[in-house]
């Protein structure tokens, strides 16, 4: 079985081309190169034709209604303009691999799966809209490759059905939290759902993000996302079906850099001092003589205090020291240690 490329310690960052090539192969090539420069781990394509997704029909059911950036368009017309020509795939896969990136795709029917198999993709993506097509998911899973699946619009029951199909096939699965709105307002993201999905379905989780900007995916990584997927365009000024909610190269790089900083900051569960903290220990409080103390004189709140710096005993020993006698003269400004106090044994 193919190893899952998403199973590493760093978040796996996917740049989604979708329809942002605008039907221009040279632009598609430029996008892949820009993805590499922006720090993407993988290039994601979509493999379909208008006829594998829908039928050419003028009935109202086949015209996109209000609430999306594609309002008023006929489904067949949208997909005919947005699809990535299948004859481009070989060169785009080869280019991505040459540049050191993974390349994979979302197949939208069985014929697309069969077509993609020739490129030995590291894994397959199931789109949110296909989450309910358990027959397609079963066919994808039958190829034995890891699957990353978006969960936009999915109820617990629908996600459970899809997960069961993949687990029955025995292939690795990663679930992506997704809000299927284009663009998605941050208030609709409910990123805490990722944690519930991870526990409920016992799989790695990530984010397929359609918000504007980079804040939400960075937050997702802080919450445990192992995968982040973002649409990528050379410029939002270029008209296209997906350009309005895609990141430009500099923005994607900004996201990558911020995520890598967050990963460094998350670190591990650790209570020991870091190397960088050692120089600051001296600024801690500790017990010092704040007045001259003669040999045999009692230690009191007037001649011993907890102050900075940190060369003396820890402040927690103050109550145990009070009333004991100085074993020798202790000049003002001397750190209090066990050997300057009579009959005092430090017990940590």
TrEMBL record:
UniProt record, GO biological process: carbohydrate biosynthetic process
Keyword Lipid metabolism on entry: no
Keywords: Transferase
Domain AFP-like: 286-344
Keyword hit for Transferase: yes
Record-listed E.C. numbers: 2.5.1.97
SMART domains reported for this sequence: SAF
Pfam family, one: NeuB
Annotated GO MF terms: N-acylneuraminate-9-phosphate synthase activity
Enzyme class: transferase
Cross-referenced NCBIfam families: PseI
Name the UniProt record assigns to this protein: Pseudaminic acid synthase
Organism: Mariniblastus fucicola
Gene behind this protein: pseI
